[in-house]
Design brief:
The complex is a heterodimer of chains A (about 120) and B (about 750). Chain A has about 120 residues and is mainly α. Chain A has six helices and no strands. Chain A starts with about 25 loop residues before the first helix and ends with a helix. The C terminus of chain A is likely disordered. Chain B is mainly alpha-helical and about 750 residues long. Chain B has a two-stranded antiparallel sheet with strand order 1-2. The chains are: A mainly alpha (about 120), B mainly alpha (about 750). Chains A and B meet through helix 2, helix 3, helix 4 and helix 5 of A and helix 14, helix 28, helix 29 and helix 30 of B.
Chain lengths: ~120, ~750
Amino acid sequence: GDDNIDVGIDKEVEVVRKRKQAPKLDAELLLSANGIPKLRRISKERLRFKGKGHEYSDISRLLNMYQLWLDELYPRAKFLDGITMIEKAGHTKRMQVMRKEWINESKPKAPGEEDMER
Amino acid sequence: AAHGPETVDPVVRAHVYSLVSAIGGSGGEDDGRYVLGDDALACLRDIRRWLRLYDDKRQRLDVARCLAEANLVKGDLLEILASWPEDATEDHMRSKLAQACLEILVPITYPYNIEEENFKRNHHKHLNYLQLAQLGYKRDIIHHDGQILRAAVRIALPCMATPCRDRTPRDEGLIRFVLYFIRNVAEIAPPKNAVYDGDEAEVSRSSVIDALQNQDVFPFLLTIAANVKGDFPTQDVLVLEILFHMLKGVDPEQLFLEEEKLASKHTDELSDLIQKEKAMLASQARDAPSRHSRFGTMVWLQRDNGNMSTIFGQDGISSQDKAIRKMDSTKRWNKPKYRPRNVEEPGANDFDTKVTLSQSVRKYLHDFINEFLDSSFNPLFIHIRKAIESEADRVLGEHSRQYFYLVSWFLQAECLRRQSATQRAAAKGKQCAGKTPDSSPNDDNSFALVAGVLNQESFIALSRFMQRSMDDKAWQDLNAGMRCFTRVLLTVQEMADSPNEDDQEIAENIQNRIFYEGMTHDRMLALLRGYKYQGFGYLDSVTELAHVFLRLLERYSKQNVDMQVRIRSRARKKKRQSIPNNEDGDQEIEGDAEETRQAAERTSRERKFDFTRFATRFTNEDSVNTFVSLAKAYADLSSEQLKRAHRFFYRVAFKNELSVLLFRVDILHLFHKMIRGPGGLDPDMPGFKEWEELVRNVFRKVVKKLPDRPELVIEMLFKKIPGTVFYLEHGHDKAAMTR
C-alpha cells in the first residue's frame, strides 16, 4: 500500500543558498586593526611634508596615503565612494565616542583633569 | 462598449468623424477655397458637446483623440478662422462661427497636467499621442497664413469694448477664452518622454513671440494689463501665465545689452568656448598614452606590507599619482546613488532651463518689455499680489511661483534698462557736450516704475511665501521665492547707490525694514543649510541668495553701526514662563498691567546686531557642504558662480577662522582636482589665480597643522563634532583661554 511510503525520499531537496553578503564599511571595520588604528600609525610613520612651496605635492601625498589605506581596508569601493561611506559611519554613537577620545588623547592635559573626566 | 484592438470605440469614432466631415471642406470647385457645410455651426457646437459630455465627464480623452486623427484643427477650424474677413464686423453668423471654433480650440490645446495617481487606462492610451498632436496644433496655429491669433483677439474686442459692469458672463468668458488660447499656444512644448519628429524650430519660443508680435497680440495684452484694476479685474492671472510662459528661462541680458555689445559678447563666448575646449583637450593629451593601444605596459605598485598591486597600461607609468588614479578607476563597483522621490520633475513650470532667442525676436520682446514696464507692471503686479493674498478663486497654486519668478525677472530687466540708459546718456554727453540734454525716458524717478513690488506688503507676502514653501518642501516654489528676494536686495542696493537723495532715503528705509527682522536672518541660515538633492537650479539660487544677502548685510551693518534686530522666538518663551506667576492671583490689577507691559516689550525685543557673530553662524559645516556641492560642478559654472564659491570658502577659512571645516578628505580632493587636474579648471580662465591662491593657502594650513595635531588625520575623514571645532582650529579650548 501507499500509506507508509511517502516520506519524501524521492523529492529533490532544494538547497537555498544564501547570497554571500558583501562586507560593509562600517564602524566595526573602521575600528578594527586595519582601520583607523592603522591609519594613525602610518600617518605618524610616513607622513613627511616638504612645506612651503610644495603645498600641492604635499596634499597629493596625503591623499595618496588615504587612498592606499582605504584600498587595503575596503578594496571594493572607489576612493570617493569609500570616503562618503566612512563619513556616514562616523555619525554612529560609537565612532563619535572614539573620535572624542582620540582628540582628548592629544590634548595637553591640565593637571587633575584626566581624573575628573573618567 | 467594444473591447479589442480598437483604440477608440468605433461608434464614438463614427459619430465624431461624421460631424467633422459635415463642417465643411475644400474641393475642386471655387479654386480649392474652403466651403462651409450647411450646418457648420451646429456641427461645431455638437463637437463641443461631445468633448464636454463624453471626454470631460468620464475622463476619457477618446473624442480628443478622434479629433486629432481627423485633422479637425488644420482642416477646418483654422480655415474657418482664417477666412473670417476683417471688415465683417456686422456679420453675426461669421462671428458666431469664430467663437465656436475658439471654444473647441481651447479645450483641445489645453495642456494635460494630470497627476500620476489620477491616471486612467485611457490616459495611458492617448496621452502621448495627444501631446504630440498638440505640438502639431501649435505649429499650425502660429504658422498659418491667416493670422489665427489675430482672429482670436478680434473675437474678444467687442466684449472688451463694453465696460466691465455691463458685460454679460458670456462676454467675460470670451475674453478669458482668448487669453487661455494664447496661454496654451505659449505653454505647449515638446513632451519629454516622446520624440517629436517635426522641426523643433517651428515650435520654439522665438517662433511664438514672432507670431505674437506679427499678429498684434502684444497691444492686446498691454491693454488688459494696464487696465487690470478697472476693466479686467479677473483676467490678471491669465496675463501672468502668458507672460510666464513667454519669459521663463529667457535671460534679460539678452534683451537689454546693446546690440554691438551682445555681438561682441557672443564672439567672446565663442572664443571662450574654443579656449575651454583647447584646455580640455590639452589636459587629456597630458594623460593620453604615447604609444599604440596594444603596447602592453604593466606596472607594479609596491605596497607597504610587501604586497604588489598590478596596473596595466602606460598611463600608470609616469608617476605614482597617475598609477593610483588608474588603480581607482578600474574598480568595478559603484556605490548605489540615492535618488530622491519628492523632487519635482521640471515640467511646464520650469524656469531654470535657458532659452535663446533669435535676433529679431529679441528686438520685439525688448520693445514689448519696455512698454510693459512703463505702463503695466505696477498695476498688474499689485493687482495679482492682492488676489493671491485674498486667496481669490481664480488663483491657482502655481500662480504664486509664476508671480515671484516674474517679479525677479522684471526687476532685473529694469536694472539692466537703467544701466544701458545711463551708459547711452554718458556716451551722448561725450559726443555733444554743451547741447541741451534729451529728455530720456529713464529719469531718476524710474524706480517708481517697479515700486509696486518694493513696498512693505510685498516684502511680507514674499517672506510668507518663502516660509510656507520651505515648510511644505515645495522646492521649486522656494526657488522662485529666493530668486525674487535676491533681486529685491540687489535692486534696493542699486537704489541706495543712486545719486538721487530721495532714492537713497527710500532705499535706506527698505533696507532697514528687511534687515530688521530676525526671522529673515534665521531663514537665510536655514535655507543655506537645508540644501540636499533639490537640483542644480535650486542650488544656484540658494548660493546666490546667501552670497548677496551676506555681502549686503555686511555693508549695511558697517554703515549703521548700532543696527537693531527684532527677535521673536525667545520672547514667547519668556512670556510663557511668566504666566503661572500671574495665576497665583496675589498681584492683582497692578501686577497684571505690569505683566502686559512687559509682554509687549518682550514680543518686540530688540538686540544689537553683531555681524561677526552672524557670519560665524552662517559659515557652518552644512553650508560648507552646500557650497562644496556647487564647486563640484566647477566644469559647468560661470565665472560669476565660481567667484561666489570662492568668496564663501575664503570667508570660512580666513575671515571667520574656521578652516577646519574645510579639512576634509573629499574637499581637499576636490580642490586639488580643480587646480591641478586632470580635468580641472582652465588655467587661463579669469579668476583662476584667485582660486589657486585660495587653495594653496588652505593646503598650507593643512600642512602646517597636521604634524602638530595627529588627531586631525582622523578627523579629516568626518564631519566635525560641533564641540571640537574650536579646539581643532586653535589647539586649545575656549575655556583654557580665559583661565
